Every structure is written in C-alpha cells, then in structure tokens.
Amino acid sequence: MPTDQTPPEKQRQQAEGIREKAEDGRLDAEQDRGVAERDRASAESAREETERFRRLAEEARELRDRHREALEVIRQEREELRAIAETARTAGEDARHAAEGARQATVDALKATADSLRVTLESMQAVEELRRTLREVRDLNKLDTN
Fold first, then answer.
1. Largest CA-CA distance found in the chain, in angstroms, rounded
2. How far apart are CA 5 and CA 63, in angstroms?
3. Helix-, strand-, coil-residue percentages of the chain, each rounded to 5
4. Contact in structure between 51 and 43 (CB atoms under 8 Å)
C-alpha cells in the first residue's frame, strides 16, 4: 500500500470529521445569529425604554414649567392684593383723619354756637334790664307829673 493513499475507512472518518466541523460551524453560526437577534431585540427594547423615559422627562419638565407659571401668577396676584390692602389701609387712615377733623370741626362749631348763645343771652338780659329801668323811669315820671 502506497503511503500517499489513505484507506477508505480513514477517508470516510476524515470526511465525517469535516462534516461534523461544518455542522458545528453551522450550529455556531445559527447560535451567533440567535444571540445577535436577541441582542438586537434587547437593544431595541432599551431604545424604546430610553425613548419612554425621555418622553416622561419631557412631560415632567412641561408639568414643572406649568406649575412654575401658576406659582408666578399666584405670587403676582398676592402682590396685587397686598398693594390693594395697602391702598385700603391708607384710605382708611385718611378717612380716620378726616373723621377726626370733622369731629373737631363739630366740637368747634358747638363751642361757637354755645358762645353765640351766651352772648345772645347776655344781650337779651341787658335789653331786659334796660326795659326794666325804662319802665321804672317812666313810672317815676308819671308820678312826678301827677
């Protein structure tokens, strides 16, 4: 038997070994495709989840901005109410001063009226005293003429 020829049994075994290696390679390739497919599915799932979180973050930012705007409106309204209250307080203070002035004017008018009535009374008393004196003088003149 020549050495460059291999017996058919050995050729068959070598062919079988090559077929097994090819089959193993094919199985490995299929497994790699399965792993790659799972990796792609995982990557897609991660992208979808990332997008969902991005949308949630955007919605949260929008909500926070609306909340901030509402708080600013409330702050401005409080400031306006504070200004209105200050105006009302000032108006009340002015009204109190005016009422005090009116009360003082009333007291002064009352005093002036009392003084005027006292002078009138004194004048009336003086006139009455003069009438009495005049009557007495007339009565004396009548007596003298008789």
1. 211
2. 84
3. 95, 0, 5
4. no
* Neighbouring residues of 1: CB distance < 8 A, sequence distance ≥ 6: 7
pLDDT by residue, tens only, the chain of 146 residues = 445 566 777 777 777 778 777 777 776 777 767 766 777 778 888 899 999 999 999 999 999 999 999 999 999 999 999 999 999 999 999 999 999 999 999 999 999 999 999 999 999 999 999 999 999 999 888 877 76
What is the distance between the alpha carbons of residues 108 and 20, in angstroms, rounded to a whole number?
129
Query: Using CA atoms in the order 117, 121, 123, 129, what is the torsion angle rounded to 10 degrees?
Result: 180
Residue 37 identity = E
The answer, as to whether pTM is greater than 0.70, is no
Q: Report which residue type is found at 86.
A: E
Tokens representing residue 45 in the block: 């799932």
Contacts of 14 (CB under 8 A, 6+ apart): 6
How far apart, in whole angstroms, are the C-alpha atoms of residue 17 and residue 12? 8
Confirm if 14 and 6 have CB atoms less than 8 A apart. yes
> Residue 3 has what DSSP assignment?
T
